[in-house]
């Protein structure tokens, strides 16, 4: 079997790339290790930059998103028991859309299947070979355990941080930049109406907390915890009590609770692979870079990458012009590093670090107070949060 673009991974990056290529008349095959049910229910990010939402709408994927997504014109920073609103609309003219990543994935899978685009779940043993040749291949076992060889013009490595594509690049041809943060997030999804109209990023002496949501009846909440935290140590009562403490305000903020539907622990790391290309293999999304989640950039970066990649592959298949393919990595990395910067900054400002001196703690509070009182500081935060321009 052969195709123009072999895509490894059916997360947002792989599925959206397949869709953008289809709109340009380019064939692709998407290979996914997990089941359809698994990827459609995997709980992850929830904030779409306006540019991301606009792209999904412009490419025919926005129907359910526009109905069910929640448009937010700002966020709250909460510290020292008070809330301070950052008004994105006023400061940037833009907004964000709260819509779960798994909903985006469901919309993408439905679109792919509606036009009969090849999308194979439950594949196993994926290997990518001949990356510097003109006909790279992907070998895998399909759902019925048949060995398949897929010959491609290009391979897109959209298989996330733990995928096989990035490790298939010879170490001498790629460089990794990495930072582990000394804490993690315990995240829950709860059947409880959101306790705030907009997201709340809370600084507290016991650690960071984040109030987010998925719908008018479902809340998504996060707590800073230790990187090696055992979920078993966290009863429902302990989770709610800790959230209540960290999100408390002087004017009696009331946190609505309810049954916890899902829970998990997410490690925090920054990671960038350079370049995002080796021969005819192009990396996109988490396969190439990870941001700490404070600032909600991960999914949006994946979308920006595949937008460039689809454009570059489009130019190549139209005219044989490789200029955009050659620029792909540098173009993506410019935006990636700015998101790494923003996410690291938000993380440093809002989290409690073990062993932090009283001096550093005071500086953290002063920084938050500065943002709360300065329109210029708010504009900087807002401009990055709603998403830097795509070009
Ligand atoms: P993924 O979504 O990881 O997709 C990669 C796909 O490749 C997966 O479906 C995987 O099953 C598949 N795959 C892997 N290996 C193989 C293989 N060998 N063969 C075939 N298929 C393979 N971002 C935020 O902004 N906010 C958050 O709250 C947030 N929470 C997160 C929680 C977790 C647990 C994780 C892991 C990430 C979170 N992120 C969050 C980041 C965000 O979800 C990612 O940036 C986004 O999923 C990137 O999309 P992607 O398509 O590049 O990668
Ligand atoms: C969500 C996740 C984030 O990392 C963030 O910064 C804001 C919201 C969420 O899952 O809703």
TrEMBL record:
<dbReference type="InterPro" id="IPR012733">
    <property type="entry name" value="HB_mOase"/>
</dbReference>
<keyword id="KW-0520">NAD</keyword>
<dbReference type="Pfam" id="PF01494">
    <property type="entry name" value="FAD_binding_3"/>
</dbReference>
<keyword id="KW-0560">Oxidoreductase</keyword>
<dbReference type="GO" id="GO:0018659">
    <property type="term" value="F:4-hydroxybenzoate 3-monooxygenase activity"/>
</dbReference>
<protein>
    <submittedName>
        <fullName>4-hydroxybenzoate 3-monooxygenase</fullName>
        <ecNumber>1.14.13.2</ecNumber>
    </submittedName>
</protein>
<dbReference type="InterPro" id="IPR002938">
    <property type="entry name" value="FAD-bd"/>
</dbReference>
<feature type="domain" description="FAD-binding">
    <location>
        <begin position="3"/>
        <end position="343"/>
    </location>
</feature>
<dbReference type="InterPro" id="IPR036188">
    <property type="entry name" value="FAD/NAD-bd_sf"/>
</dbReference>
<dbReference type="InterPro" id="IPR050631">
    <property type="entry name" value="PheA/TfdB_FAD_monoxygenase"/>
</dbReference>
């Amino acid at each position: 079997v052969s195709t123009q673009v072999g895509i490894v991974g059916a997360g947002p990056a792989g599925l959206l790339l397949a869709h953008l290529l289809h709109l340009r008349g380019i064939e692709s095959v998407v290979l996914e290790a997990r089941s359809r049910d698994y990827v459609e229910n995997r709980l992850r990010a929830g904030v779409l930059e306006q540019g991301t939402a606009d792209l999904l709408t412009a490419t025919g994927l926005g129907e359910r998103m526009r109905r069910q997504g929640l448009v937010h014109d700002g966020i709250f920073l909460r510290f020292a028991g008070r809330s301070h609103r950052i008004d994105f609309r006023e400061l940037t003219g833009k907004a964000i859309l709260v819509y779960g990543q798994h909903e985006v994935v469901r919309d993408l899978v439905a679109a792919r299947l509606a036009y009969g685009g090849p999308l194979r779940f439950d594949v196993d043993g994926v290997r990518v070979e001949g990356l510097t040749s003109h006909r790279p291949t992907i070998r895998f076992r399909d759902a019925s355990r048949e060995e398949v060889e897929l010959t491609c013009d290009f391979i897109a490595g959209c298989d996330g941080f733990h995928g096989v594509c990035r490790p298939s690049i010879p170490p001498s041809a790629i460089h990794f930049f990495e930072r582990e943060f000394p804490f993690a997030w315990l995240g829950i999804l709860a059947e409880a109406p959101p306790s705030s109209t907009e997201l709340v990023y809370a600084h507290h002496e016991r650690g960071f907390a984040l109030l987010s949501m998925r719908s008018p009846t479902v809340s998504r909440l996060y707590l800073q915890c230790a990187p090696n935290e055992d979920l078993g140590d966290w009863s429902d009562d302990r989770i709610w009590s800790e959230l209540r403490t960290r999100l408390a305000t002087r004017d009696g903020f009331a946190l609505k609770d309810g049954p916890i539907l899902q829970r998990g622990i997410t490690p925090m790391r920054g990671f960038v692979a350079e370049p995002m290309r080796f021969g005819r293999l192009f990396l996109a999304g988490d396969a190439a870079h990870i941001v700490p989640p404070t600032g909600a950039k991960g999914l949006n970066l994946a979308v920006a990458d595949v937008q460039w990649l689809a454009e570059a592959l489009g130019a190549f298949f139209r005219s044989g012009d490789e200029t955009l393919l050659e620029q792909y990595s540098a173009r993506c990395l410019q935006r990636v590093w700015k998101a790494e910067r923003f996410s690291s900054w938000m993380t440093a400002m809002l989290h409690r670090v073990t062993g932090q001196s009283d001096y550093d703690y005071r500086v953290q509070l002063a920084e938050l107070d500065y943002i709360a009182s300065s329109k210029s500081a708010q504009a900087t935060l807002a401009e990055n949060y709603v998403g830097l321009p795509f070009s």
